[in-house]
């Protein structure tokens, strides 16, 4: 039968599989980059600069996706770039989620002065323009992987806190919470056992979205050369370099761009898919 | 002394209007007391105050709530929780939001018995099966493995009733337990609650706005208007001859299926004006 639920489920299945496949492949590429990358991503070879990808006339079969103006292998650079992108996605995403969701949950469930403090903090925080804020932070902290992750965490925790607070508040008004309190569950116990499982689907979606956002932020910061040293290939850095020679060598710009796009899309679709799959009401 | 004894309980919204005005009532062990009144009369608030689940915006401004001889309002929060958890339970109004959608039915009944009252898991599970059978759920073992959204409203309300009786509480607050159900299911649920109450000998505080329900289930009732008890009587006395003009008008307003030509009789303006004047006089007397 093709009722609403099975349709949702099938779509969720496709989403989950496709996005999972892409991200899984990317993870493997990141982990095994030194073994699977055909070339050294930093090795310059000015005699083989701006070689097109293999299916275009005049290519060198040794460089599958072509080379940039310094003769570095685009494919190898993308594979190595995945290491930075995924590290930032996973670490920054998880830490942001942990801090933001915890504050949101506590504020939304306990209310009172805790909520007052957290809510005002969110309001103040969100008044800062995020891009300027991150550039300022990096300028103060100095470039580097740690600085990028810290900047993302510091700026984006409000995204979780705001949404989870509202969700926890709505769940807190439900009768099952009152029943748990009557039965003698303490505040913390009620929050963890009764509220948390019900906001978990939302947390999952936000977490994967945040991972996608972290990938974009890292790319933006690399693009403006505020990320990490150019000794490490990054997608954002590649896009910045490719931009200058786009009329002579489009592949230097397009391949990292497509990879970035697919990765961010995969993260957001993974979240949606997981939510549809594990939400007990939709299941 | 009665099992539950509320004396001069006053509630108000923080820095706002009064919600309960010196409410006093008694529920003897094994007795069923109805709490009736219009929406906003404060009947649910009484139940919530007893169970310690008042909304954060509401504060208690005076009075005592004796449960099993102990004044709950004098206990430390932790002690109060323990006392309430061990002796009282709630049958909530809306079965659709009263079960946690993320957990299966079984753990929702048994976890509290295990975690809070220290039962063994085997004992709690056996108890859950026994209770679901008692509330006439066919195949309890299967239902215990299901999620709330897989069950109908009536089924969920049965489960909530079973869950309320699980730890053999001495007092149950039923907060409009049939309001969210359709009429045919209402009747079954009422019968079920009345039967369970009689078998277990539990005292019951039955919050409702339906006098027909009161006449079937309760032995005594309190009529509330604007947070004030206007009449406290046995059900027999009340239905024979209500003493307060407001409760008489409320009784007269109940539609009668036996005489459809009588139509609907809203509570007359004059009666409302009179009872409002009474409330105003009370406020003047107690707050200067």
Can you characterise this structure?
The complex is a heterodimer of chains A (283) and B (288). Chain A has 283 residues and is mainly α. Helices cover 74% and strands 0% of the residues of chain A. Chain A has helices at 4-31, 33-36, 74-110, 112-127, 130-141, 145-172, 175-182, 187-223, 235-244, 250-278. The longest helix of chain A has 37 residues, at 74-110. Chain B has helices at 43-51, 77-87, 105-115, 121-134, 140-144, 153-165, 183-200, 211-217, 235-240, 245-253, 269-287; strands spanning 4-13, 18-27, 32-37, 58-67, 70-71, 88-91, 171-175, 203-207, 220-225, 228-234. At the A-B interface, helix 7 and helix 8 of A face helix 2, strand 6 and helix 3 of B.
Spell out the blueprint of helices and strands.
The complex is a heterodimer of chains A (283) and B (288).
Chain A: H1 4-31, H2 33-36, H3 74-110, H4 112-127, H5 130-141, H6 145-172, H7 175-182, H8 187-223, H9 235-244, H10 250-278
Helix pairs in contact in A: 1-3, 1-10, 3-4, 3-6, 3-8, 4-6, 5-6, 6-8, 7-8, 8-9, 8-10, 9-10
Chain B: E1 4-13, E2 18-27, E3 32-37, H1 43-51, E4 58-67, E5 70-71, H2 77-87, E6 88-91, H3 105-115, H4 121-134, H5 140-144, H6 153-165, E7 171-175, H7 183-200, E8 203-207, H8 211-217, E9 220-225, E10 228-234, H9 235-240, H10 245-253, H11 269-287
Parallel strand pairs in B: 3-8, 3-9, 6-7, 7-8
Antiparallel strand pairs in B: 1-2, 1-4, 4-5, 9-10
Helix pairs in contact in B: 3-4, 4-6, 6-7
